[in-house]
Structure formats: structure tokens, C-alpha cells
């Protein structure tokens, strides 16, 4: 069985997916980390992120591996663990450009569909495009200010700057971010992390 958790930037997807996965005793899968890792590699190699063909060629020569650990996903390129570098502001700024390329999306989708269920998958288009037949789908929202305040506890940056960057990234990600028609939408604003996790686990089919 696959549970999908999609939502806007910093809405709590990976924390919630991790909690739901732990409650179920299954792994969770962070699709955003693959887009982030592709962006980091492109930036490190000095590639033009608008150039889909050169990005893809580089990714084929430098394959990435997503390790869907329950306590937190990791991405490897050979022996190099890219994970600690994937949540920088530089990656945040480039990632939507990379994620807009249809062939990069197909490259990510192939890796996700090769994974063996059960798992909880989180991202933007898990319930619509990648796993449309998943029996349980959720979509997380929260106001930009609430999301920025949560992120500001993880990063030494002003809330206003984080909020502006989140709004900009949401706008760039609109195409792939529509909720699935059969997804249950949860506003996480008034809830604690634990309450969101319970809201999901209590609605899962038995
Ligand atoms: P995303 O994967 O959507 O970017 P994260 O899982 O990184 O989001 O969550 C962003 C931050 O919000 C984390 O520090 C998380 O612990 C925090 N958070 C606080 N309260 C909640 C809540 N009610 N629901 C979801 N996340 C929350
Ligand atoms: O939660 P947050 O938006 O901070 O990060 P993420 O889930 O790691 O996603 C990073 C970026 O990857 C998003 O801004 C999208 O551009 C892209 N993404 C996507 O297009 N499709 C997905 N399924 C997941 C992420």
C-alpha cells in the first residue's frame, strides 16, 4: 500500500510523512530530495540550469541514489552523501527551474516507481502523477507566514525573507502542485505535528 502526502513548500510534508511512516512501520520517500540533489549537482558542475539536455547528460554520468530511511531520507552520489547540502538557500533558489524540465521529472518518476511498496511518498505530484492509484492521499497546506515561521526555527534567516522565497517557489511550482481530486486537504496551521500525523493515520483504510 502507498500513502501519498503532497503539499506546498514547507507545509510539513517530510516531518509528517516520517511520522506516518513510523506509525505504520514502513519507509517514507522524499521526492523533493531528488530534485534538490539534481539541482546541487548542476550548480556544483557550473551547468546552466535552464539547459535540460546537459543536466540530464550529467545526471546519467553521475547517478544518484535515494536511500529512504525511516529517520530521514538520504541522497548519495557514489560515496558522497549529498543530504547535508540539500536544504541551502542556493538549492531552494534553483530547484524549481530544474523541476520544471519534463525529462528531469521523468528521471525522478522512474526512480520512485522502481521502489517496492509499502511506503509513504511525499512531494508535489505523488497523488496526481506518480502514484495516481494510491488508496490514501493527503495534501498539506498552511499560510505562508506560518510556514516561514516554522522554517525560521531551522535556519538563521529573517522570517520575511523566508516567506518571500516560499511564496515565489510556490508560484514557480504551481503546475505540478495541484491536489489530487481524491486527496484530503489538511490545513496544518492550527495543528501540532503530532495532530497532523494522527489526522492522517486515523483516516487510513484498514
Ligand atoms: P516540508 O517537507 O513540506 O518542506 P518539513 O517537514 O520540513 O516540511 O516541515 C517544516 C517544519 O515545520 C519542520 O520543522 C516541522 O517540524 C515543522 N512543523 C511544526 N508544526 C508543524 C505541523 N503542525 N505540521 C507540520 N509541520 C510542522
Ligand atoms: O518542502 P519543500 O518545498 O521545502 O521542499 P521539497 O519537497 O524538497 O521540494 C523542493 C522542490 O522540488 C520544490 O520546490 C519543487 O520545485 C520540486 N518538487 C517537485 O517539483 N515535485 C515533487 N514531487 C517534489 C518536489
Describe the fold and architecture.
By secondary structure, the chain is an alpha/beta fold. The chain has one domain: P-loop containing nucleotide triphosphate hydrolases (Rossmann fold, 3-Layer(aba) Sandwich). Helix content is 47%, strand content 17%. It has 9 helices and 8 strands. It has helices at residues 13-24, 31-44, 52-61, 89-99, 102-113, 126-130, 144-152, 159-172, 193-201, and strands at residues 2-7, 28-30, 64-67, 74-77, 80-81, 119-123, 136-141, 184-187. Strands 2-6-1-7-8 form a 5-stranded parallel β-sheet. Strand 4 and strand 5 form a beta hairpin. Adenosine-5'-diphosphate binds next to helix 1 and helix 9.
Question: Which properties best describe this structure?
Answer:
206 residues; Rossmann fold; binds cytidine-5'-diphosphate
Amino acid at each position: 500500500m502507498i500513502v501519498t502526502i503532497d503539499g506546498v513548500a514547507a507545509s510539513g510534508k517530510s516531518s509528517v510523512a516520517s511520522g506516518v511512516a513510523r506509525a505504520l512501520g514502513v519507509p517514507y520517500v522524499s521526492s523533493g530530495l531528488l530534485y534538490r540533489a539534481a539541482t546541487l549537482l548542476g550548480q556544483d558542475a557550473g551547468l546552466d540550469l535552464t539547459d535540460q539536455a546537459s543536466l540530464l547528460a550529467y545526471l546519467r554520468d553521475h547517478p544518484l541514489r535515494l536511500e529512504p530511511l525511516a529517520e530521514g531520507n538520504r541522497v548519495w552520489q557514489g560515496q558522497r552523501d549529498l543530504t547535508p547540502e540539500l536544504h541551502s538557500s542556493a538549492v531552494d533558489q534553483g530547484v524549481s527551474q530544474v523541476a520544471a524540465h519534463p525529462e528531469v521529472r521523468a528521471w525522478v518518476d522512474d526512480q520512485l516507481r522502481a521502489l517496492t511498496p509499502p511506503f509513504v511518498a511525499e512531494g508535489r505530484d505523488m497523488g496526481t502523477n506518480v502514484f495516481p492509484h494510491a488508496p490514501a492521499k493527503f495534501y498539506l497546506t498552511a499560510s505562508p507566514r506560518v510556514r516561514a515561521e516554522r522554517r525560521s526555527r531551522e535556519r538563521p534567516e529573517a522570517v520575511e525573507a523566508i516567506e518571500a522565497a516560499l511564496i515565489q517557489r510556490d508560484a514557480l511550482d504551481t503546475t505540478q502542485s495541484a491536489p489530487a481530486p481524491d486527496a484530503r486537504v489538511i490545513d496544518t496551521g492550527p495543528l501540532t505535528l503530532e495532530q497532523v500525523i494522527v489526522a492522517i493515520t486515523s483516516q487510513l483504510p484498514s
